[in-house]
Design brief:
By secondary structure, the chain is α+β, with helices and mostly antiparallel strands. It has helices at residues 12-28, 115-119, 143-177; strands spanning 2-6, 33-39, 46-52, 62-67, 80-88, 102-107, 123-128, 133-137, 187-190, 195-197. A 7-stranded mixed beta sheet has the order 2-3-1-5-4-9-10. Strands 6-7-8 form a 3-stranded antiparallel beta sheet, with helices on one face. It is rod-shaped. It starts with a strand and ends with a strand.
Length: 199
């Protein structure tokens, strides 16, 4: 699953809380990988961080509260800072173009092109089984070349689809970044040491 840790529109204190919570997750989720991060001007501060893991981390979803005197504004009265943790589904990769996942059908093309086109099955319909996408190719005089063209066309179509899916996920994550809710935290930490309360 993909987790996004976000400071929302919070100040630098919230951005620092994202960095501190990221360090907590590194020790709690050994297989965690950072896939995207938006750093800010202060060391250890992030507007948001996206991580992936094979573990079920649904118990972390929600609001994280950090109780601390501001390290950036010592006279600031506020001591409660909030960040959010949201999850996103990771789409399986559809970039496998081996013949194991492509189904080919051949057919007579007909029309111009001489006896080879009319008598031999040179036309190719290729279907990418995981996505159901298919292309039909008839322009070459041989089945072999038409197969190559079909694989290239499927590759281009699926690469474009993957790009669009990735952009959609980024937009969704950014929208979620703006929706941080304060209150009812799933975890609370305190102090610059970022010690968890109420375990």
């Amino acid at each position: 699953m993909i987790l996004q840790i976000s400071s929302g529109n919070g100040p630098a204190e919230c951005e620092l809380a994202v960095g501190k919570f990221l360090e907590v997750l590194k020790s709690e989720i050994p297989d965690m990988k950072i896939i995207n991060e938006t750093k800010t001007k202060y060391a250890g501060c992030y507007r948001s961080v996206a991580v992936s893991t094979n573990q079920d981390a649904s118990h972390l979803l929600g609001t994280i509260k950090w109780i601390v005197q501001s390290p950036f504004r010592p006279k600031h009265k506020r001591k409660n800072w909030f960040i959010s943790v949201d999850s996103f589904d990771e789409k399986p990769s559809t970039t496998d173009f081996s013949e194991d996942v492509i189904q080919f059908q051949t057919f007579h093309c007909g029309g111009k092109g001489g006896q080879n086109v009319n008598k031999v099955e040179t036309g190719v319909r290729a279907t990418h089984i995981p996505t159901g996408l298919s292309v039909t190719v008839t322009e070459a005089r041989t089945q072999h070349i038409n197969k190559k063209i079909a694989i290239n066309r499927l590759s281009e179509i699926i690469a474009k689809q993957n790009f669009e899916d990735e952009n959609l996920m980024k937009q969704t994550m950014w929208m979620q970044h703006e929706l941080l809710e304060r209150g009812n935290p799933v975890r609370t930490y305190s102090g610059m040491e970022f010690i968890r309360k109420g375990i």
